[in-house]
Write a structure and sequence with these properties.
The chain has helices spanning 2-7, 10-30, 58-67, 93-107; strands at 46-50, 73-74, 82-86. It has 108 residues and is mainly α.
């Protein structure tokens, strides 16, 4: 509760989560990924992305990102091949930028 208070309260934390989400989505789209949900339906907590190609290997992608210090999540829907990235917690836009750099390196 002290950290929440120091951050400026619920509204300030929510704004940070929204900024994390914005940076993530813009960066992922720049790297060729598409979001599962349209912008008008997407929240800022966790974001699902389609696999970028039919030959995409999530396990390899996951393991390479984990080796760089980032953990993402497999998709949880059966209608599409997706993975998820969380935008909340002790995560800031600079962390999202570092993740995007790691994704760019992994994707080569």
């Amino acid at each position: 509760m002290q950290e929440l208070k120091e951050e400026g309260g619920i509204e300030a934390r929510h704004r940070r989560y929204e900024e994390n989400h914005r940076v993530l989505v813009e960066g992922m789209r720049r790297l060729g990924f598409r979001t599962l949900l349209s912008d008008d339906k997407q929240g800022c907590i966790i974001t699902s992305f389609y696999y970028p190609s039919a030959d995409f290997n999530f396990t390899d992608f996951y393991n390479q990102l984990k080796a760089k210090g980032f953990v993402i999540y497999p998709g949880k829907i059966s209608e599409a091949d997706t993975f998820r990235i969380g935008n909340i917690g002790d995560i800031y836009p600079k962390d999202i930028e570092a993740l995007l750099k790691a994704i760019e390196e992994v994707r080569g």
